[in-house]
Amino acid sequence: EAVADVEIERFGAKDVKDLSWQSLMDAYTCTECGRCTAVCPANITGKLLSPRKIMMDTRDRIEGVGSQLLGINIKADENHTLLEYYISKEEIWACTTCNACTNECPVDIDQVSIIMELRRYFYLEEAGCTGTLNAAITNIENNGAPWQFSMEDRMLWAEGLEVSTMASQLAQGKKPEYLFWVGSAGAFDDRYKKVTREFVKILNHLNINYSVLGTEESDSGDIARRAGNEMVYQMQAMMNIEVLNGYEVKKIITCDPHDFNTIKNEYPDLDGNFEVIHHSQFLQQMISEGSLSINDGILKGKKITYHDPCYLGRGNKEYEAPRSVLKALPAKNIEMGRNKQFALCCGAGGGQMFKEAEKGDKEIFIERTEEAIGTGCDIIATACPFCMTMMTDGLKYKNKEEEVKNYDIAELVSMSLSL
Ligand code: SF4
Ligand code: SF4
C-alpha cells in the first residue's frame, strides 16, 4: 500500500465523525434538562461554556451530517464543523474538567469527553492552546516541570530533612516499601513545598520505609493531557513508568490528586501498574490503625471547612479519607453547602491553573472562596496543590488572609503533632 493511500488518523475530534459512538449516542440521550449547566462552575461564573449546549450542538451537527448522507439536504455545509461552527474555542478552553456535569446528569452522559476530544484536535492539529498554558507545556517537555526550573533542582525542597532517594537505597541493596511521589507542584511551588516538607516529617515520625525519585522524577504529564497535548503526556508517562518499573516500585504515595489520578487510572494503559495512595488515605489508615495519635490541642476550638479537590472527590470517589483525618483533630468541622460529589471546583483543573480564565463575570476561585468564608470557618483545609493556590488567592482577593487560613491536611496533622 502506498504511503499516500494510508489515511492518517486525526488526533482528537474536529467534527462529529471523529467522535466515539458513545458520544454520538449521548447526544441523542440528552433530555436537555440543563442540570449539568446549572452546576458547571464555568457557566455559573458567566463563561460561554454550557455542557448542555455541547450535547445539543453535537446532536444538531449529527442531524446535518446525517441528512447530507441521506441526500436529504445535500447543500448542508461541509465546513460547518462541530468545532468552530457550533462550538467555539472559548467554550472548550473554559472547562476545568471538574466533572460536575457528568456527576449531575440523570442519564449518565459524558459531556467532558467531547470537550477533551475537541481540545486534543485543537492542540495537536491546529494552534496549540493559549499562550501561558502553551509555555507550561513547553516547560514540561524541556525541563520536566510546568515552570522554568531545572530538573537538577527537584530535591531542593528537602533541604535539611532526612529524605533518601531510590537510587541511594538501591546502591545499598535496599528496596523501600513506598515511593513518595512529590510531583511538580510539591517540588517547585513555594507554598506547596511547605506541605511536602510537613508530610515528609510525618512519614519520618512514623518510621515509614519510603524514598523519593529525586532528580529522576519528572512531571506526570497530567497538565499536558488535560490541555489536549497527548504527545507530551505520553512521553512524560512512559519516561516515569520506565524509571518506576526500573526500581520495581509497587506502592506510591502522593499529596497531589492530579498525579494520583493520572498514575492510578491512566498509567496502567502504558504498562505502569502501581498501587497509588493519596496522602489523605495514608493518613486515615495511620490514624485508624492507631499508629498516629493526635493529642495536641493546638487546633482546639478552630472551625475547619474542607474543600474537595475534583480529582480526589468526583474523580476517584474519595470523600471520606480527608474528612476522617480532620475528624481526628480536636477541631470543629463544618461543611460548605456544595460538598463531596456536589463540591464546586476551585477553578484550577483542566489546565486552567496555567492560563488566564476565559471571559466571564467572576473568577471560579472567588465564588468558591466566598462559599468557604460563608461557613464562618477559621481554616479552609485542602488536599491538593492547585486548590491551595486558588483558595489562598481567594482569601487574598477577599482581604481575609488574617482571619481565615488555608492549610493542607498534612500541615494540620503535622501541626497537631508539633513536628
Ligand atoms: S467538567 Fe466542569 S467546567 Fe467542564 S463542562 Fe463539566 S461542569 Fe463545566
Ligand atoms: S444533565 Fe444530561 S440530560 Fe440534562 S442537559 Fe445535561 S447532558 Fe442533557
Short description:
Helix 19 links the parallel strand 7 and strand 8 (405-408).
CATH architecture of the largest domain: 3-Layer(aba) Sandwich
Main sheet strand line-up: 2-1-3-4
In total, the number of domains comes to 3
| Molecular shape | globular
User: Would you tell me the structural class of the helices and strands?
Assistant: alpha/beta
- What is the C-alpha radius of gyration, as a whole number of Å? 23 Å
Rounded mean pLDDT is 94
* Helical residue percent band: 40-55%
* Small molecules bound: iron/sulfur cluster
Reading off the top of the CATH hierarchy, the class of the largest domain is best stated as Alpha Beta
Number of helices: 20
CATH topology tier name of the largest domain? Rossmann fold
Biggest sheet, in brief? Answer: 4 strands, parallel
- How many individual β-strands? 8
Would you list the SSEs in sequence order as H and E?
A: HHHHHHHHHHEHHEHHEHEHEHEHEHEH
Strand content: 5-15%
**Can you tell me the residue ranges where pLDDT is under 50 for at least 5 consecutive residues?**
1-6
Straight-line N-to-C gap: 67 Å
In words, what does this structure look like?
There is one protein chain. The chain is of the alpha/beta class. The chain has 3 domains: 8-125, Fumarate Reductase Iron-sulfur Protein, Chain B, domain 2, CATH 1.10.1060; 144-284, Rossmann fold, CATH 3.40.50.1860; 294-416, Rossmann fold. 46% of the residues lie in helices and 7% in strands. It has a 4-stranded parallel β-sheet. A 4-stranded parallel β-sheet has the order 6-5-7-8, sandwiched between helices. Helix 15 (257-266) links the parallel strand 3 (251-254) and strand 4 (275-278). The longest helix has 19 residues, at 51-69. The termini are far apart. 50% of the residues are buried. The model is unreliable at 1-6 (pLDDT under 50). The structure holds iron/sulfur cluster (2 copies). One iron/sulfur cluster binds at residues 30-36, 51-52, 55, 104-105, 107, 109, 111. One iron/sulfur cluster binds next to helix 2 and helix 4.
